[in-house]
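User: Fold this; tokens only.

Assistant: Input:
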Amino acid sequence: MTRQNRIPSSIRKRSELTEATRLVVKVGSSSLTTVNGGISEDALTGLVSELSKVRNGGVELILVSSGAIAAGIAPLGLVRRPRDLATQQAAASVGQGLLMAKYTQAFGSHGITVSQVLLTADDLIRRQQYANAFRALGRLLTLGVVPVVNENDTVATHEIRFGDNDRLAALVAHLVKADALILLSDVDAVYDGPPSAGAHRIPTVETAADLEGITIGSVGTSGVGTGGMVTKVEAATMAAESGIPTLVTSTAQAGRALNGEDVGTWFSARGGRRPLRMLWLAHLASTRGTLVLDAGAVTAVASGSRSLLPAGITSVHGDFEAGDPVEIADASGTVLARGLVNYASTELPEMLGRSTRELSRSLGTHYEREVVHVDDLVLVGPRVTGPSR
């Protein structure tokens, strides 16, 4: 497999999932663990049985699996998922081995070899690490292996991490040019309100407008996981907007989903595939500040083809260095883009409202650069919102 010759199939609806040749499937902690935090043998083997049918049918499969931290809770004598990073890292270190042992045994009973792939955000946004991850996953797939991917929680930091495996799965699907992404949890679909209150399933999302005015699930519903329906919708939207159709459904419906049946919520692919770094910048990057623009600069940036110059910036907020991600907003505070800034927050105040030519004359040629180059800038739409907490 190479980036040049791997062409994703043009799957347009859920019934065509049976035609996929490469799938990324993500399963959440709540689907794999017991109420006490241990690994549920029945849940794991049931899921593996369904996935093995697909893999043994010739489909290349990558499984993005949560559960390492949850699996480490009981062995460490903890009563709930830890909140501090150090204890989360300790639990992940203990639990990851236990989780992989179960997957190795379960897939092995179906004649399938699995591998462990632990990733950090750096691995998918820095060019060299990105290339290494791509080559490793590609070779594993050609060897018939099912890579089991998880965030490397043991070394991840609050500052740079995926935050949940839904987003990680979307980026992995983009990385390997998957035909489709399937996000599994304990909720069978996206609903237009609380399912307990008689809400209706949303069968298909064609555009972001289909979710306008709808409060999506919760930010986090499980005592062992980090994600909720909000993160799944965000990840599905991220994937769909980069050309990868995505199905959100429950682990209990995995078999029916893989058979292309009418379950879950289908996010239709839209837009072209864009660089992975731009997906990270749009959806995952932890911004360090905000640049506020005048009306003319807003129009220029919103075109998607213009760099941001100092003349159009009216104010700067935050504390950041050159190369940090920042938000770009209009005068009312509405964020319209994100970008990697070329100057530190301490340098920008004396540059505001001035042309690059003027800055070059008074401060030196170093200041002829754009504040944010168009190649390091991505437009962002409205964020998916969950209920207030």
